[in-house]
């Protein structure tokens, strides 16, 4: 090829050099785009699979509501959530996140190493619930100290732990033996608690204040039939726990978007979640985490 020179510049060599440089530049751009695509694909929460283990509720009575919540989060780019339900005897495993009672978390988080990433709110912007003891009107303290008591579930923070502590402090002569304590069956069996007090001979029952108020609003019971005589400590009812081995971007992305998305939840879905005892999620503070670690001490 004939060399072309002008002002003592070899343009054939310059063209060859520019060609090689352009090739290297294009190749570098392709590599960077590929790396970026991998990153953004990983960070694209709308398409990222999220396995959520449900430990606090049975599937028969909570699946519809929790699937509606999962659909709502999916549609707003919060992750492709798949629900997996665990029974009481199961050991939660092989999921990214777990929805469990705070007492379940307090008992179990040190063994599998689960970490709390969200506190379930009771009503919008309110994190804690309060357990109460309800009775038929007119029961006196002596009768209460001898009464058999029914709670929702041995895993419930506000359906067992909080009202039990209030009852033990008000009636210290109440025996600790299980002969005087019964459970309705599960976290969602709070209606069985009130019916047990009304019709089945239990002297008192323990449920959360919010659920008692929920039953009043629905007309299931009235204050003339059932009254609150003791209020326990306000405690977190449910937590969203996370497997500590999960990818940090996946954890942070889902946690952040879940809180933000649930803040804008429609009233109808929030009302359905209220039946489960929660209305959304909040990022836990240091005080929240410290309180969760002390919950089991309430039983001693």
What descriptive keywords fit this protein?
300 residues, alpha/beta, D-Maltodextrin-Binding Protein, domain 2, 6-stranded mixed beta sheet, 5-stranded mixed beta sheet, 10 helices, 13 strands, globular
Summarize the structure in words:
- 44% of the residues lie in helices and 22% in strands.
- The protein is of the alpha/beta class.
- It has 2 domains: 45-122 and 237-299, D-Maltodextrin-Binding Protein, domain 2 (3-Layer(aba) Sandwich), CATH 3.40.190; 128-236, Periplasmic binding protein-like II (D-Maltodextrin-Binding Protein, domain 2, 3-Layer(aba) Sandwich), CATH 3.40.190.
- Strands 4-3-5-12-6-13 form a 6-stranded mixed beta sheet.
- It is globular.
Cα-to-Cα separation, first versus last residue:
94 Å
Uncertain parts: 33-43
Quote the CATH topology of the largest domain. D-Maltodextrin-Binding Protein, domain 2
Overall pLDDT = 82
At CATH level 2, the architecture of the largest domain is 3-Layer(aba) Sandwich
- The CATH homologous superfamily name of the largest domain equals Cypl, domain I
Number of domains: 2
Write down the secondary-structure element order. EEHEHEEHEEHEHEHEHEEHHEH
Shape descriptor reads: globular
Radius of gyration: 28 Å
Biggest pleated sheet: 6 strands, mixed
Strand order of the largest sheet: 4-3-5-12-6-13
